[in-house]
Every structure is written in structure tokens, then in C-alpha cells.
Amino acid sequence: MIYGIGNDICDLxxxxxxxxxxxxxxxxxxxxxxxxxxWKARGERWPERGVSYLATRFSxxxxxxxxxxxxxxxxxxxxxxxxxxxxxxKPTIVLHGSLKEWFESRQLTAxxxxxxxxxxxxxxxxxxxxxxx
Length: 133
Ligand SMILES: CC(C)(COP(=O)(O)OP(=O)(O)OC[C@H]1O[C@@H](n2cnc3c(N)ncnc32)[C@H](O)[C@@H]1OP(=O)(O)O)[C@@H](O)C(=O)NCCC(=O)NCCS
Fold this sequence. Notes:
Elements: E1 2-11, H1 12-22, H2 24-30, H3 33-45, H4 47-67, E2 81-85, E3 91-95, H5 97-105, E4 108-116, E5 120-129
Antiparallel strand pairs: 1-5, 2-3, 4-5
The structure holds coenzyme A.
């Protein structure tokens, strides 16, 4: 059964400004180590792809934080919630540390979808629970 849903819209211009102002420090605050490496590789080749990558990760993490009902409150943190990609390209959520423990102890599973255009990134997350709580 559905435990929670969350969505988010993110203004790429804000992300662009934060990257311009804080550079790698902003990305390091939002991205897991694996995501940071992808961001670096994409951004070096084509800066705009770096912006959209960071914006879709930012948005997906916010959607997930809403779907689990915590918002950005412990154990939900930016870096413990990683948005990875399956070989098909489909995004998937990989959790770490205390957030992973919190999530698994409740027998939850998550589904995430992201999208972006020139000025906005958007995402939608559905969290399911195995048994009624
Ligand atoms: C959820 C959160 C990450 C979204 O922040 P944001 O990007 O600035 O704002 P958005 O426009 O994307 O989303 C805001 C909506 O998220 C929803 N929301 C807020 N807290 C939420 C939660 N714990 N779980 C699910 N959804 C939540 C609300 O519907 C809110 O809209 P509303 O204030 O008009 O009701 C942020 O509000 C948050 O972390 N909230 C919880 C912690 C907190 O600071 N609470 C303050 C009150 S004690």
C-alpha cells in the first residue's frame, strides 16, 4: 500500500546561481560522493548538463523527503539520499547510513521520476509500505 507521495519543482536559475556563487561546495552539500563524481564529469563536458543534473537530484531528494513525511529532518539529509540510475536510465533511490536503517526498518520501498526543461526540474516520488502500519 502507499505510505506517502511527494513532488517538487526546482528553478534551474537558482541552482545555476548557487553553483556560480559557491561552486563545488554547493554540489558537495547536496550530492553523495557517487553523484558528485557524475556531476563533475557531466559539468566539465557541458556545464548546462551539470546544472540540470544537480537540479534534478535536488528536486528528487525533496520529493523523497516529502513522500517519507519527514521533510529535510533527520535522518533525512541530502547526502544520505542518493539518486542513481539503472542500466536502462531509470532513476532509482539508493539510501545510506541512518536514513537507510530508518527506511528499511519500516519496510518501505520508493519509486522516483524526474524531468527537466530549460528553466525547471521536477520530480515525483511514491513510497510504498509492505504491510499496513
Ligand atoms: C518539505 C520541505 C523539504 C519542502 O520545502 P521547500 O522546498 O522550501 O518548499 P516546497 O514548496 O517544495 O514544498 C512545501 C510543501 O511541502 C509540504 N511539506 C512540508 N513539510 C512536509 C513533510 N514533513 N512531509 C511532507 N510534506 C511536507 C507542505 O505541503 C508544504 O506546503 P505548505 O507549507 O503550503 O503546506 C521543507 O518544508 C521541510 O523540510 N519541512 C520539514 C521541516 C521543517 O522545517 N518544518 C518546519 C515546521 S516545524
